[in-house]
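Quick one:
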Amino acid sequence: MTTALDSDIFAPLFSDEEIVKLLDDHAQVRALVGVEVALARAEGRLGVIPSSTAEQISKAASAERIDIAALTKGTARSGFPIIALVQELRRLVGPQAAPYVHWGATTQDIMDTACVLQLRSVIKLFENRLAELARQMEQLADRHRTTVLAGRTHGQQALPVSFGLKVAAWLAPLIRHAERLNQISPRLLVVQLGGAAGTLAALGDKGLAVMQALAEELKLATPAMPWHAQRDSLVEFAGWLSLVTGSLGKMAQDIILLAQTEVDEVAESGEEGRGGSSTMPQKSNPIISEIILAAARMNASLLSAMHQALIQEQERATHGWQVEWLALPQMAILTGGALKHALYLARNLKVDGAKMRDNIARAHNVILAEAAVFALAKAMPRPKAEELVKKACSIAVSEGKPLIEVVEKLAGGLVSDGAVDWQALAMPENYIGETEKIIDRVLKSASKLFG
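Output:
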């Protein structure tokens, strides 16, 4: 039994193929080689190594010519792939340039910077996925801005809301997550170069200049100091991943509840056979939402591991780094899969407005209780109105009558004719407050950010 993300059978269920390709071994080797080459160019430009040597390293070092099997063996021996990688690069660049490969750097410099390069590519894809998901949700919210259903609090029908408002509530956190990503990216996308203990001693008085030049070569920012044992930016990004999947998980949980047989207000799609059962022909399980929820809960657990990895000893640590290797790629892959599935739902969700109205009626329109109280409070003291409506709710449920019909009967003689528009009061769509304006505010924010 293998892990789900490594399984040929299960991996497509939980992941996004494009994200996986950005994080696989080949992508990592390309990033590692890219950092080593950029380091040589930066040092050649500053005269730390001969410029002709830097040019030779730049021309000869090719990720496609690196023997990954050699990196595997080297990693098994040393715990890291960099010693074997440097050996491979020295073989490629020739004996004259070989001594200058990896000049003044340490393993963690190369691996951390390569990690940042990979995360930069991942972030770009996440930005595109979020923007497309937001656009689909904007359309869904606008399409159902007046589709009325029962708003539910504590698992029970509460007041009328619109399905468009519910979708807007799914969309609003994604807008904030996109804003957060813009805020945290400058802290995350920084070069790592400190040498063996973070002093840049091997580079003499040109250490900080090399750091700056390396950052320029890779189009990364420069930190105030090397961050070998300061992992807060990576953990901050991991927190962002968990926030995204958590918000998508809220959407998925809502869909699962709305898709229950007894509710039946939405379906994940009209696709035949999706979510089927091996033995129950009637089933159409909300499997897409289940996968999103699993990703959200798993990311919440993995985030704890990333926080554990923050505790790093001295100038460079013993094991927290490896914890990151185990947790962060999984979180990124699961987030990619959750975004992929959320986009499917936003595009394919089937909304049954008639069933939503039927469920309100089946509960005898008790979601209009508050509306009835405030309508009566214009003609009698509010405590008396609340007492009357509470009694009416009990009668409506026990006798199977619409709430407003019972309220009107009980209020006879207590309110003057025409004081209450009973027909209008009986219509749930008349008690959705500022719903459309709220939806418009969210859509405006989304449009401003995503275009």
